[in-house]
Amino acid sequence: MNRPLPRRPLVFERQRMADVMALAPGEAKPLTEKSARAILQRVLLEETLWTTHVFHSDPEIASRAEGFEHALLRACRKMDTGTFKCWRKPEKLIARNTGLALQLFFSGDQVWYTTTGIDEMFDRWPGGVRRMKMDTDSPSRSYLKLEEAFSYLGREPQPGETVVDLGAAPGGWSHACLKRGARVLAVDNAAMKIDHPQLTSLRHNGLSFKPDVPVDWLLSDMLVPPGKMISLLRNWVGKGWAKHTVFNVKIPQEQAYRALVPLLTYLDGTGVEIRLKQLYHDRREVTGFGSF
Q1: How far is CA 124 from the centre of its chain?
Q2: Positions of the chain with pLDDT under 70
Q3: DSSP string, 26-85
């Protein structure tokens, strides 16, 4: 039975599978027609575009998962050529937000599956993994985290908007905003490795920085612990210093969620729509993004 999604998706959650079914041990290899028909049941019934989302719990079984997907598509073509011709690669349907996604999750020797309308999915990317493309002009790979956060937020800096980038050095996040036409004030005690006509660098501690006038975006890649992030946001949210934000928070090796509870409680109390999520490109950190 489907349950309504909670108001705030879980911080460490990537994907959800509703009404999930599993193949019995031994049914995945070789794939029988009976098993293939059970997995494909909904896409065979509905005349619509569809795709396969294949993901796994261990990189070592990636090749097995890929081989299973190929076998399933061959079975589909044999059963119903029309349905097979409606199949598209996942990226073709992400932007369209239409059609069906047949999710196949591999864990150990088990194969779990379900079919979901793409417009009803928790995350339209396979397995909730959003792999961003690196910009070779960026001075750091932290650029990928910001690009992923923008994809979740559903908006990004626009030409002429103003951005304050705290903990900016060497400049990966600033670069992502500058290439979009924004004006950036980069705040860091370290030196930037980029130069741009719309970039202003300020040697200053990001935690104590106060803008002269409100800006459109607050970015923070300082990797401070949750307590310090609460103090930072009290100024920026409470005093209206920015309209939108993306920030990173450092988490401990153990009991990571417990460390985040005070920050989550604070955000709930503000009434603003700021979400915390561990992104695919995060490591020992989580990312916050939203609007004030």
Answers
A1: 10
A2: 1-8
A3: TSTTTTPHHHHHHHTHHHHHS-S-EEEEEEES-GGGHHHHHHHHHHHHHHHHHH-HHHHH
pLDDT at 1: 40
> Which residues make Cβ contacts (< 8 Å) with residue 32, sequence separation at least 6?
none
Q: Where are the domains of the chain?
A: 21-128, 142-291
Report the candidate in 198, 146, 196 with the shortest Cα–Cα distance to residue 167.
146
243 is annotated as an active-site residue: no
Architecture of the domain spanning 21-128: 2-Layer Sandwich (3.30)
CB 247, CB 266: distance < 8 Å: no
Catalytic residue among 179, 193, 228, 250: 250
| Side chain identity, residue 56 | H
Angle at which helix 226-238 crosses helix 256-270, to 10 degrees, equals 10
What CA–CA distance (Å, rounded) separates 57 from 256? 20
Nearest to 112 by CA among 48, 196, 23: 23
* pLDDT for residue 3: 54
Residues of the chain with pLDDT > 70: what percent?
Answer: 97
Kindly report the number of other CB atoms within 10 A of residue 190's CB atom: 10
What pTM does this model have? 0.88
What is 142-291's CATH superfamily?
A: Vaccinia Virus protein VP39 (3.40.50.150)
pLDDT at 6: 56
Short-list 222, 223, 232, 243, CA closest to 266:
232
* Residue 65 neighbours by CB under 8 Å, 6+ apart: 54, 55, 56, 104, 106
